[in-house]
Amino acid sequence: MSRKFGAVAVAGAVTLGLSVFGLTGCGGASGSGGNGELAGQTIEVTGPWSGDEQKAFQKVLAVFEKQTGAKVNYTAAGDEEPTVLQSKVQGGAPPNIAILAQPGAIAQFAREGVLKPVTADVEQQVDAHMAKAWKNFGTVDGKLYGVYFKAANKSIVWYNDRLLTQAGYQPPATWDDFVKTVNSLSDTGVAPLAVAGADGWTLTDWFENVYLQTAGGEAYDKLAKHQIPWTDPSVKHALQVLQQVFQPKLVADGNAGALQTDFSSSVTKVFSDAPKAAMVFEADFVGQVIASNTKAKVGDDARFFPFPAIGKPAGKPSGSVVTGGDAAVAFKDDKATMALMKFLASPEAGVEWARSGGFLSPNKDMPLDSYTDDLTRAIAKQMLGADDIRFDMSDQAPAEFGATKGAGEWKDLQDFLGNPADVDGTAQRLEADAAKAYHT
Fold it and tell me: Would residue 11 count as lying in a domain?
């Protein structure tokens, strides 16, 4: 669901000199056709990023151009990218490479036979620098197509440090402590949570974090593929756990008000000069909204803690992270195309964007000091160190179920927020909508 929020502002660009890693290190020029070997070659790339995100990515591409002599043209397609790509494929003019956020779209294009599996040297680069989970996310029917370049950590709770400190609370590590904390805060007159119920995708992220921890990774994968029904007891149990915090007294402006609150507004409710809530759950990109829309200082006024561990002893982190991300896929398999794919899998590729801000890399060998602040480093470290990492479930679903405003999972979970007592009815509606979307 990394693209459901859309493009976000990237703060102050800082240019990184190529000498930081050296052109032959970390998959540099010698592995990407260096010394101008690709001079005269043009590579067309289509992606979702526009505005400041596009500028940051073009800085990354400029590093590759300087190393290889190739020219890379980038076209922004926005959130309609899968549709744009389908038209280009049908017209016989696909780009060399596309950046896709949805594993479902990668699988669709791969099974249509229009994507090219990566070459052996690209796969070796992925094996060397990525955790196995990221390779699995980009693999379809045993072949690697997607090289993940940008990631999102979606297992984060952000909090207003002043409000929590004044109330005498420490960031809770376990779900039980989290529930106790939000209820205690409510009793003192502080609204504990801002919930962006108007944007159904945020509710899917709430559910996915709870479900991963309560049902486990194997069940999570099966539910993502609709191999178990949404009426399964594991789904109902997750809804019951979520029900504990989806209570009117715990949510700023009550549940009805939350259903009128969009994502950006949920963040400003916590970090404005006159905050209306103490905490908001969402991914690392909350930091960009804080920086762009409030006077709060990320890492000082605005801090985070990992999504609370459910069913684990105190002091034991959950070890589970729900993630999203953007992967490069190739519609052509010529030398220049695969050279860029290999570069994007290298540790040095993400450094330029990391220095600019608004970026997390799934590459375990990109130095953490590439990030410009301690908070982003901590968020990246939590994601990279997770024992159990799973891709956003709604991004794996057919769009009519997992990515459509006012329909499917988004609408069903909005109805649940409006009436959290209706666990059975919610599960039944989710299953009915999933069955239609998955054609089962």
Answer: no
- Measured over the CA atoms of residue 232, residue 238, residue 241 and residue 243, the dihedral's sign is negative
Return the closest-CA partner of residue 276 out of 264, 287, 268: 268
Structural domain harbouring 353: 18-153+323-391
- Helix, strand, coil shares of the chain, percent, nearest 5, are 50, 15, 40
At 440 the pLDDT is 76
- Determine the distance from the C-alpha atom of residue 136 to the mean position of all C-alpha atoms in its chain, rounded to a whole number: 16
Q: What is the DSSP string of 150-163?
A: EEEE--EEEEEHHH
Q: Which of 244, 238, 240, 237 is nearest to 181 (CA)?
A: 244
- Assigned domain for 2 exists: no
The set of residues, in sequence order, having a beta carbon less than 8 Å from that of 127 and lying 6+ positions away, is: 135
Q: Do residues 314 and 213 share a domain? A: yes
Phi-psi region of 191 (alpha: psi -120 to 50; beta: other; left: phi over 0): beta
Tokens 């459901």, located at residue: 4
E strands, 9-77, are: 42-47, 71-76
Mean pLDDT across 338-344: 98
Q: How much is the mean pLDDT over the chain?
A: 90
CA distance 71 to 183: 57
Domain annotation covers residue 165:
yes
Q: Is the pLDDT of residue 267 over 70?
A: yes
pLDDT digits (tens, 9 = 90+) for 135-163: 999 999 999 999 999 999 999 999 999 99
* Residue 43 phi, psi (nearest 5): -115, 125
Q: Is 260 exposed, middle or buried (0-12, 13-18, 19+ CB in 10 A)?
A: exposed
